[in-house]
Structure formats: structure tokens, C-alpha cells
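Open question from group meeting: does this chain pack into something compact, or does most of it stay loose? Before anyone orders reagents, we agreed to write out a predicted structure and look at it together. Recording both the input and the output here so the notebook holds the full record.
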Amino acid sequence: MDDVRKGQIAFLFLKHQLREKGVRLTPNFKREIGNEAKAIGISIEEATEFVELIIRELVEETFANKRS
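C-alpha cells returned:
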């Protein structure tokens, strides 16, 4: 399995987990993103962009389903 496919699977897996378990937007949410980014060795900006992308997609999917 190549790295691109691993990334696709990881993205889908993470979205599914967040959809099932939900997202808690606490006052420390951005700090938690920063701590996770440092722990896994990526930039805070990259991590924030990634998390925002996933959350926006989940919100759009949720409300798109209700409009139909």
C-alpha cells in the first residue's frame, strides 16, 4: 500500500470516528490542536488547517443530509 492510499484511508477513518463520537469545541480546542501537532511533528498551522477542513466537511455533510 502506498503513502497516498494510507493517507486516504486515515482521512476517511478519522472522519468516521469524528462523525460517530462527535467533536467537543472547548475553550482549549486550538491549544489541543497545537499540542497534538507538536507531538506528531507537524506545524501548528498545518494541523489547524487539517482539523478545520475535516470539521467543515462534517458540518456540510450533516446539513446537506437534512435539506434533502
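Observations to bring back to the group:
The chain has a mean pLDDT of 92.
The radius of gyration is 14 Å.
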